[in-house]
Each structure stands twice: as C-alpha cells, then as structure tokens.
Amino acid sequence: MLDAIRQRCSVRTYTDEPVAEEDLQAILEAALCAPTANNVRPWHIVVVTDTEKRETLAGVHQWARFCAQSPVVLAFCADAERQPHWWIEDACAALENALIEAAALGLGACWVGIRGEEGGHGPGLEREQYVREALGIPGHIRVLALVSLGHPAGRPSPKPPGPMDVVHRESW
Ligand SMILES: Cc1cc2nc3c(=O)[nH]c(=O)nc-3n(C[C@H](O)[C@H](O)[C@H](O)COP(=O)(O)O)c2cc1C
Predict the structure, then answer these.
(1) Ligand 1 center from residue 168 Cα (angstroms)
(2) What pLDDT digit, counting tens, does each position of 87-108 carry?
(3) Where are the domains of the chain?
(4) Which atom of ligand 1 is nearest the CA belonging to 159?
(5) Is the CB of 111 under 6 A from ligand 1?
(6) How many whole angstroms from its chain centre is CA 26?
(7) pLDDT per residue over 14-53, tens digit each?
(8) Pick from 138, 137, 154: nearest CA to 146
(9) Of the candidates 10, 68, 72, which has an alpha carbon nearest to the alpha carbon of residue 46?
C-alpha cells in the first residue's frame, strides 16, 4: 500500500479496455473504508460508465474533458443533511482511498474537482448543479468531485514527495 501511495499520480489518458467489475468493487470498498467524522459515513458514490453521461460530465469544465475517454467516472457525493459540517472531509478521505486502491491495481485515475465557491465569485455552485442534473442526484446530496478511472494509455511518472521543509516540529 505504501508503494501504491508513492506510485499514484494523476492519469488523464486511457485505453479502451473496460475496468473489471472486481477491480471496481475493490476501489469502491477501499473508498468505503475511509474514516468519517463521528462515523456518520455520509458518502454516496455514483458509478458512471454510460458514454453519453460521461460525455456530459466531461463538459463540466475545461479540465474534465478526459472523463469522456475514461471507461468509468465516479462521482463522489455526501449527504449534507446527515453531515452538514464534515461532509467535505469525509468525501475527500473516501476519494483518496479510491485513488490509492486504483494505483495499487495498476489502474489510472484523476481527481476532477467541481466544487464551486458558495456565494463566491467564479463558477459558484453551477458546476455542482450541472453534475447533479446530469446524474439525477437529489438536492440534499452535495457533490464533491469526479474521478476518472481506466487503464492508463501511458505511464506518467509519479511526482517525488513534497520537500520536508513544510514540516514543522513542536512549533512553527
Ligand atoms: C481538489 C483537487 C481538484 C483537482 N481537479 C482537477 C481537475 O479538475 N482536472 C485535472 O486534470 N486534475 C485535477 N486535479 C489533479 C491535480 O492536478 C494533481 O493531483 C496535481 O497536479 C498533482 O499531480 P499528481 O496527482 O500526479 O501527483 C485535482 C486535484 C485535487 C486534489
């Protein structure tokens, strides 16, 4: 698993080979092993393989285009009524577990952020609403991000770990 963490990197090009159901199950199970605040487990994951739906998701913004090529797109969501405060952290932890499991299985994946700034400038909540409408996700469910998933068409190199000078011991 430590090797998988070090080998993980964002993969944005994929072959046509479908993701085996057992690999998908392993990735979903890894996601659902993540810690959640107060053990609420507010996550929901929408698994999308339908070509038309993936093409729609790929249009959410310009850095999501490869979702049309990856055989699977996962939408990581959370029930914000059940967990209004910690849903983002909970969904992030699940998503990261999924990325690591995908790397461990030799699959390629990429985190595609879609969350807008609430009440802020820029895309606001429009991207989330776009994904919600594309997948029929109910209003009380928040959408954190998409993950593209497939067999890598190339072997991008993992980045080295970040430098240690951001680590502060005992005090800043
Ligand atoms: C919150 C978040 C949002 C991201 N959104 C996108 C995205 O929309 N499109 C994309 O191609 N990569 C996206 N990424 C992937 C990052 O670009 C990538 O993790 C970063 O460049 C480091 O590369 P690595 O994953 O290969 O280590 C996102 C990553 C995070 C953590």
Answers:
(1) 25
(2) 999 999 999 999 999 999 999 9
(3) 2-153
(4) 27
(5) yes
(6) 15
(7) 999 999 999 999 999 999 999 999 999 999 999 999 999 9
(8) 137
(9) 72
**Structure tokens belonging to residue 23:** 């690999």
Residue 20: which residues within 8 A CB-CB, separation 6 or more?
none
d(CA 21, CA 29): 12
6 lines ligand 1 (CB under 6 A): no
Tokens of 106: 């030799």
The domain covering 2-153 belongs, at the CATH homologous superfamily level, to NADH Oxidase (3.40.109.10)
Q: Identify the residue whose C-alpha is closest to ligand 1 atom 1.
A: 113
